Amino acid sequence: MLAPGDAVLVEAPTYQALARLGSVFGARTLSFARRIEQDCALDLGAMKQAWQPGVKLVALTSPHNPSGFAATREALAELGGWLESVDAYALVDEVYRDFDPHPPPVAQAIHPRLITTASLTKVYGLGSLRAGWALMPEALVTQAEQLFDFMAVNPAATMLNLALSAFAALPQLRARVIQRAQENRALVAAWLAASRCFTGNLPPHGIIALLRLPGGMDDRALVHDLAERHQVLAAPGVFFGLPGTIRIAYGMAPDRLAEALARLEAGTRAFRA
Which of 43, 152, 174, 187 minimizes the number of CB atoms within 10 Å of its CB? Predict the structure, then answer.
């Protein structure tokens, strides 16, 4: 989709690799805001305001990484219609989508100007297979196949066959992780309500959340201190372009989660003091 001299419009905050990807192809990177005060809702007005001539691609995540909130079907349909009018496409990374027990259709099924990407990683725990996919109009599939053949030559057939065989087990894997995510969300919600350090809203589904820190706290320094002194890991908001926040993930066993949340609160209080 991109060539030197083109531009890509990327959500902010976003997963850092997505923000850097356009530069690999010599494209300029612009950004549009997804505001934490609005649960990072997809705002077409913000996109239009940030739009410049030369933009060929919009890049976004749904559910959003780092906040975990998904774009609505209506917002994606509106986005697709606008992209058609400006002759551009959107890459919609839906790798966290299947945490929703009743998700809307994939973005590509909502509008042909939306390209869906996903994989067996986040929901299904099969990241070691390195298997993912894209759904897009047929003409773009042909181009993508040619480029992929040039870059990958012969992918490891054993890994691809394992990935294909995993699809039969995906419903069982998904049911298990959805149950775990819902149980853990209740634990995180109770912890967050009692926290003296963190504020924020939890998404209805999934295992990630973006939390605000007390005013003036250095998220990078805090995360480093938590890892070194309390052996608990979180992602600093600066990684996503939103300093003053951290992203937590809560997909682990409930007893480990309870311990992690206790360490997170105690460690942040100590760091604040």
Answer: 152
